[in-house]
């Protein structure tokens, strides 16, 4: 066996162990008895310890040195690129710092939850400061002289920079606030009324999952507090949730997670349990979930079909026709919470977090000023005041668990989805005719071929450029949103 | 930190990883999508590889040498005993042999299943021969000059020997065949008729699990093809199955698995995720499942209560009264299959396997003669001929996966259950009054205190001796069976 083969055998075991850690996470949110939490903490720590030891294993350096890269094909080179990256990252962070970060972020999550419960940002602030101090330390170790925030971003979106995102988001923000203002002044569509049996919701949601191409023979749909997708390759599971008065929450959570899951299921099987065998970045991942959910799932064509499915499942539910249904599904409402935001306003929530967390990491914003900064920015973008911390600075878990550099990938995913939607509709000219009868095969097949199948083969931006024929830009998303909501609200 | 502390930290991680491997097994039988099997095989192999590497880790030898055992308490010494044993065992078997065994037993299971399907022992024989050759090789490595079968037995029942079991089982067999003959000539009780809604079975089975003290806040009950219990400490899950015409299969499978699960749940929390934090042997484990299932669950007192519960759950199901119900529950019927055997005949099935597998390991019996030897022995003990291999030599998966030395622990468990039942009834004199109203707390509390709580602290035989006041013997089981079935069948 060559050094490359040895390295890949070793890496394959690491990937298999990482899958196990993921499956434990799934179990924890769906099946685990509540009383098992303390033991599960130790189990997770043990498997994370094994994974860390493998990522910094000195044999990786030896193998990498011995490999003659000239003899590798593109996939082989890409494998090495991922292995080098993960090995370098794990090796750069001192073990003591990693341990302190693991401890503080585990504690911080509980402290954040309690502070949110008590509407008391001050109770969380000292812990958040500690998290930020340690994350900055980690960022400095990773950046090695470069930009701290860029080093963090690189964990979730390899190759992206804060400056580049700032430019992109800077172009998005004024257009989004303008569109938002216009919509707010227009006449609002009706609101969905009535109750929708939750087991009937689950039945229809499973059908929707299949409609969007989710392979149930290698997956499953369960209920959890927060919808998520978990796993790669042959075992990719999703969760959703139900709410008696809000069936769209269930259906669109499912379609969103199916987008993530189909990305993992759609990767070339040759990459199974290798570094190329998972989605290439959080942004590209989110582009799949978002295009499934929004550009396809919330389109006029598809909602027309969904209206019929809902009538079959629930009988007459008080909505007169497909057009009204379409307007209800895409209703723009005031609200404080990012995860409940509609397609139009969602990115404004993200942009706010991006600017604040970048300032926190850069040292220009202090934790003591964070709540005021949040509230000011919210007022500026949304036009009304935050009423309580749980609707503002305390609403997301991310910062408490040390996720800095993660938020912007949500909006980047929306931008990518906009680009992909344009290219898809150019290639599949009768797409709406198909969606009208609930047939997503051409759309999901196009995404599988042009995005999903490649796994980690290309850099994220390169992948989108290859798929769409041009470099990623916020323009298609803006034009899609302004055309869709302009029409919906007769602007 | 002392060497002992270092060793225990290391060991604790190993135990946590072993729990993860167990949870994957549970997932595979209950939740895993069918199409994930291939990937799961690699995941399991990866985690087993990690566990093996930890068990043979040379640091263990160093730590063991550095520890001054004179300063340890009983629990500390017992921890070392378990660690030494597991380290020595893993180190004695050459890695190449372990790998060959893993491969052949994984293949053999499929070949066995196909041979059983086709009623063709000859198709399985060559593979079984290979398994036996490798197991003997492993046995020689483990025995280091001692008895091969004893070395295998030691994996499941530390300290037990083939000769000692032979003596015990030799005393059991004639009494069991005599009793069996007598029962066969007596008038048989009626058979249960009708259909029993399977979701109502699951509802009652969950209630039964709680009745026997299973803590559902740290466990769960799911359906699986084969009932089993899985996990230790704070996360112990069981499975059961349902059959529309045979609710007793569901209920007594559940009570049996609850016995196993309560053993794990009942271990002193100070031993959590340490070598002492799991049941001490398969025999002692089986003693708990069996005493829950039989001496308690199939007693006249408890079945009287269960009769009422079944009437509540299913309405009038055609059984006149408690006495008739008790006779139906304990009905002795002809049959070929060990796992379906009643309390009286079960051990005859096991004793047959013990003698045959010991002869196979000793080289006195060849695989080519195994089917005939099985059939002859079956005729001698049960009085009728085996009609097909799936009802005979091909019925159990054990040998195909290399489990030699495992079968006798089933009967040893029954012997231990007999001893414990005697001691329990001496200490809790009004036990039947309690069971009559479905109250198992005194019984399960006694077992928890005298057996379960100790985990791996004592040697198996020592544990039973401490709990009962005398060395284990087959006499109490025989006297219990002959009294129970003598009365039931008016012998």
Helices, strands, pairings?
The structure is a homodimer of 491-residue chains.
Chain A: H1 3-30, H2 37-55, H3 58-66, H4 74-92, H5 95-117, H6 121-143, H7 148-156, H8 162-185, H9 198-211, E1 221-223, E2 229-230, E3 237-240, H10 247-266, H11 282-296, H12 300-314, H13 322-329, H14 346-362, H15 370-382, H16 407-427, H17 431-436, H18 441-450, H19 460-468, H20 475-488
Parallel strand pairs in A: 1-3
Antiparallel strand pairs in A: 2-3
Structural write-up:
Two copies of one chain form a homodimer. The first copy, chain A, has 491 residues and is mainly alpha-helical. Helices cover 64% and strands 2% of the residues of chain A. A three-stranded mixed sheet of chain A has the order 1-3-2. In chain A, a hairpin with a 6-residue loop joins strand 2 (229-230) and strand 3. In chain A, helix 12 crosses helix 13. The model of chain A has no long low-confidence stretch (mean pLDDT 96). The A-B interface holds A 12-14, 16-17, 19-20, 23-24, 27, 31-40, 42-43, 45-47, 49-50, 215-220, 233-235, 237, 272-273 and B 12-14, 16-17, 19-20, 23-24, 27, 31-40, 42-43, 45-47, 49-50, 215-220, 233-235, 237, 272-273.
């Amino acid at each position: 066996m060559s050094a490359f083969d040895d390295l890949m055998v070793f890496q394959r075991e690491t990937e298999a162990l990482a899958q196990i850690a993921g499956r434990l996470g799934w179990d924890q949110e769906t099946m685990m008895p509540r009383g098992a939490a303390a033991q599960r903490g130790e189990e997770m720590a043990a498997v994370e310890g094994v994974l860390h030891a493998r990522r910094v294993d000195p044999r990786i350096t030896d193998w990498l040195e011995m490999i003659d890269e000239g003899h590798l094909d593109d996939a082989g080179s890409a494998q090495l690129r991922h292995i080098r990256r993960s090995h370098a990252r794990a090796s750069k962070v001192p073990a003591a710092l990693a341990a302190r970060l693991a401890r503080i972020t585990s504690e911080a999550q509980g402290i954040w939850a309690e502070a949110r419960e008590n509407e008391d940002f001050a109770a969380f602030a000292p812990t958040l400061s500690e998290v930020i101090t340690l994350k900055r330390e980690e960022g400095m170790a990773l950046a090695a002289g470069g930009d701290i925030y860029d080093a963090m971003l690189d964990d979730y979106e390899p190759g992206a920079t804060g400056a580049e995102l700032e430019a992109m988001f800077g172009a998005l923000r004024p257009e989004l606030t303008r569109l938002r203002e216009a919509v707010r002044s227009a006449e609002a569509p009706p609101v969905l009324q009535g109750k929708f049996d939750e087991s009937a919701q689950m039945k229809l949601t499973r059908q929707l999952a299949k409609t969007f191409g989710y392979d149930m023979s290698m997956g499953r749909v369960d209920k959890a507090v927060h919808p998520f997708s978990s796993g790669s390759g042959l075992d990719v599971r999703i969760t959703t949730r139900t709410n008696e008065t809000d069936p769209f929450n269930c259906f669109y959570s499912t379609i969103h997670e199916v987008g993530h899951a189909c990305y993992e299921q759609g990767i070339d099987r040759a990459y199974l349990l290798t570094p190329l065998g998972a989605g290439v970045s959080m942004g590209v991942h989110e582009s799949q979930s978002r295009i499934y959910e929004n550009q396809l799932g919330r389109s006029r064509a598809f909602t027309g079909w969904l209206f019929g499915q809902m009538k079959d499942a629930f009988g007459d539910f008080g909505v007169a026709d497909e057009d009204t249904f379409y307007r209800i599904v895409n209703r723009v409402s005031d609200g404080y919470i990012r995860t409940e935001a509609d397609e139009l306003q969602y990115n404004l929530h993200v942009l706010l977090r991006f600017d604040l967390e970048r300032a926190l990491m850069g040292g220009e914003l202090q934790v003591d000023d964070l709540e005021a900064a949040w509230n000011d920015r919210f007022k500026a973008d949304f036009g009304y005041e935050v009423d309580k911390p749980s609707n503002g600075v305390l609403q997301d878990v991310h910062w408490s668990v040390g996720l800095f550099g993660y938020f912007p990938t949500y909006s980047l995913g929306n931008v990518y989805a906009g680009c992909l939607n344009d290219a898809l509709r150019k290639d599949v000219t009768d797409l709406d005719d198909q969606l009208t009868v609930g047939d997503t095969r051409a759309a999901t097949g196009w995404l599988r071929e042009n995005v999903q199948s490649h796994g980690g083969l290309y850099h994220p931006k390169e992948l989108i450029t290859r798929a769409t024929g041009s470099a990623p830009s916020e323009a298609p998303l803006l034009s899609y949103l302004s055309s869709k909501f302009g029409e919906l609200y007769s602007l």
